[in-house]
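TEACHING EXERCISE
Course module: macromolecular assemblies
Task: Read the component lines below, then compare them to the predicted structure of the full complex.
Student: A.B.
Group: 4
Components provided:
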Amino acid sequence: MEVKKKTAGQPSFTRRGVLAGAASILGSGAAAKLLPRASAAPMPDHPLMSGSMHTGFAEGRTTVDPAVNGFDPSLVIRDFDWGKPRPLSGGRTLRRYELVAYDKEIEIVPGVKFKAWTYNGRVPGPTIRCREGDELEIHFVNAGTHPHTIHFHGIHRDVVDGVPGIGAGLIDVGDEFTYSFTAEPFGLHLYHCHSSPLAEHISKGLYGAFIIDPKDGRPPADELMMMQNAFDPNFNEDNEVYAVNTVAFHYLYRPVRVKRDELVRIYLLNIVELDPINSFHIHGNFFQRFPTGTSLEPNEYTDTVVQGQGQRDVLELRFPYTGQYMFHAHKTEFASLGWMGMFEVVE
Amino acid sequence: MKLAIALIVVALLGAGFVAMHGMPGGSGGVEVKVKHAKLEPGRIVLTLESHADNVVSIAQAIVNDSYVNFLAGTPGEADIALEYPWIEGESYEIELLTSTGSSVDFEIEDAGEPT
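Instructor-supplied answer key:
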């Protein structure tokens, strides 16, 4: 949306909503000139957000076109990869997954590109899902430009731990390796590259959620995976973009729709580099907290949870009322830099 | 209307950083910096100077760790107006993110009084 303002004696401006637009600068050797840029397709404003002082948003292009990135946070949040199953003797199951690391430029906030390192072309990588006791084979191909690994949280032998110098260690560019282990313990875990420098390999996008269900499962629920992540596109050791599932503010303008009174289960993880803690806060509701998801008994009933890097929690809640309910980091800097979303509760 | 002029410290991260990491389409690096800034009620107006070989797109603006709306000047003008309710005497760190993720950074150390 563009609104031109012109006042005699003052420069004229073209309005650019937050996340909306761009000014293009052409070097002239002296003063700069601003050139108009063809604006992206306008996106409808969220009715509650227009002019909101809470967010600072007003108008304009507010989300990244999923076609640009090749993945959509609105789908990633409910996308669970159960692998290719094959029955084993004794009623057990072998699950095989395919992960390929490769470089890919993604858009992390409208108009700003980031040269990411990805598993399967998305950040976060596929959410690997299985049951406790399953035999897992994760076939990894490094099609990137640096040696990578996959390090899984969980209980397993050192040779499949995905760290340099042990077992297969670093997987060189063009090489491949299959990580094989039994899924244990049940809970919410992580996987990520463990190459050095570790912070760089993680902050560029090589991570994903690893969910091991209890043998008897959990109660039926609308399940959501939320990976808290961040990006430092100008490499100044200070993140400029925070999000859940990569794209800043995505769920603010594409709310997560859930049903009133239905059990909602959130698999919440924190992989943010450069900041010691992160947090999740929900408006108008409270949730049960299951730390790391390794117990079926919650240990806290709250509306805010704090996580260090690598920490995980399973959260369960029901929304008793329809309407719009915000969720965001209760580190307000992170919220103002993109870690903010909305639940839309419907009948 | 008298416009207060802020004391600006131009952090040459814009030019320095992009020269180090490269910029869109430019082989010789890009030099973009804030030439000067002025404070108006409810907004901070920046005049940019570029010695870039190619067009550089300012995609987002951050003031004190918060994304803000901004108004882009019409062709031939070099100003960007950031919508921000600045407060006299306070300091502001500003990052203009380009389309490639590099930034033009600068700081207002002591915001002046608008009239």
